[in-house]
Write a structure and sequence with these properties.
The protein has 416 residues and is mainly α. β1 and β2 form a beta hairpin. Helix content is 62%, strand content 6%.
Length: 416
């Protein structure tokens, strides 16, 4: 049965789209969406007209044509007879390798510098202050070029390692630091599992097996520690886990490496250069160290701010219980400070990933140098190349942001 409230029902009018608060927000949003679509349509139409005037079409067929250029630092098989698509994959892998290395090193440098800047030792605190203020106020490109110049001009040449009384010697008879790069031992497997073809890339099954075993061991150790924490919460006594953790972390990977016949391939001076092992070229080292020390200065300030955000009562309570200062920082302060540190840390990781595009200045062949540089110059497909490169950077950045946000949700304070 219909109920009549007695209030007169107003009929809908067009004026209500602007003056009625129930409809005004929808009107503004729809109007903004129409303007955005019109702007996008104008850009697309303008692009098509300009391409037609230049006698060009829009196509990604150039990715399957022969590249015709070499890449010095290549994690997978590649030469000048491969396609531009393969060159783009090599550039992308170089970008990801550099980003992972720089993020890890910058984090370590930043955490150490941020903690030491709060040290009660005046000299240590001031030295860290000088480091932070010096490196973060000079453009990162300058530091990259400085590191490249030092490696190229100050390091010994391979010929200096030759002779009975050489002018230079290898570090621990395993690492050679030269003006052509750093040569380190590389892994070899006598009983190799081989490789497989995945989208034109042939990843090593040996490396995949090693990474998988390490990941599973870490996961099993985490489960062990969680079980120990549950037992401690229930009984007040924490079971000993140190020997179990060592066994879980070391035994599986040791067995796997023994089964695969793992050994190291040491670099040796043969002819005019070192052969064997893994060569880290000066361009990679310059980018790695430049990005690490530069971004580490920013991370140091983030860590310092996170520590200062924790109430001093936490430190005083730990000291009152007899906890050592080092353990107080590691077990009490830093775990709580992560809730403040992680969000701005995400931005620094994204900055490192995007700053890898500066590798062109020192000859590091990353995604910007391959797809966004030589490939575009050779094929004349600047629009397609730039759009593809932007899409790849966007996907990589979103993946990093998503992973770090998942971690941030795990460490943030849970409110009831």
């Amino acid at each position: 049965m219909a109920m009549d409230s007695g209030a007169p029902q107003r009929s809908f009018t067009l004026g209500m789209l602007l003056y009625d608060t129930r409809y005004r927000s929808y009107t503004i949003q729809i109007f903004a969406l129409i303007l955005l679509m019109l702007g996008a349509a104008w850009l697309v139409d303008n692009t098509i007209r300009n391409l037609a005037a230049l006698g060009k079409d829009f196509s990604f067929d150039f990715l399957w044509s022969t590249s015709g250029y070499d890449i010095s630092q290549r994690p997978i098989e590649y030469d000048s007879t491969y396609t531009h698509g393969r060159a783009a994959i090599v550039g992308l892998l170089n970008t990801l390798i550099l980003a992972v290395m720089a993020c890890a090193t910058a984090t370590v440098i930043g955490v150490i510098a941020g903690v030491l800047r709060l040290s009660k030792n005046w000299i240590v605190a001031k030295l860290m202050t000088i480091y932070v203020e010096t490196f973060r106020n000079v453009p990162v490109l300058i530091w990259i070029i400085v590191v490249s110049a030092v490696m190229s001009e100050s390091m010994p040449a391979p010929r200096d390692f030759r002779g009975d009384t050489p002018a230079a010697s290898m570090v621990f008879d395993a690492v050679a630091i030269t003006n052509r790069g750093v040569y380190v031992p590389g892994p070899l497997f006598d009983n190799s599992l081989g490789s497989f073809n995945f989208l034109g890339v042939q990843p090593s099954l040996d490396i995949i097996a090693v990474i998988a075993v390490i990941a599973l061991s870490i996961w099993a150790n985490v489960l062990l520690l969680r079980h120990a924490a549950k037992v401690q919460n229930a009984t007040g006594i924490r079971p000993k886990t140190w020997w179990k953790s060592i066994l879980i972390l070391l035994a599986p990977i040791t067995i796997l490496l023994f089964a695969l016949g793992f050994h190291l391939d040491y670099p040796e001076l043969r002819g005019f250069n070192f052969q064997g092992g893994i060569q880290m070229r000066n361009s990679l080292l310059a980018m790695w160290l430049g990005l690490s020390i530069y971004t580490g200065a920013f991370i140091a300030e983030i860590v310092r701010a996170g520590i200062l955000a924790i109430n001093k009562g936490q430190t005083e309570a730990a000291f009152a219980l007899g906890v050592q200062p080092s353990k107080t920082m590691r077990l009490v302060i830093l775990p709580q400070a992560l809730r403040v540190i992680v969000p701005p840390l995400i931005s620094q990781y994204l900055n490192i990933t995007k700053n890898t595009s500066l590798g062109l200045a020192v000859g590091y062949m990353d995604l910007r140098s391959t797809l966004g540089g030589i490939t575009i110059n050779q094929t004349g497909r600047e629009l397609e190349g730039m759009m593809l490169m932007m899409l790849i950077y966007l996907v990589v950045s979103l993946a990093i942001s998503t992973a770090m946000n998942i971690y941030n949700n795990r460490v943030r304070l849970k409110e009831r």
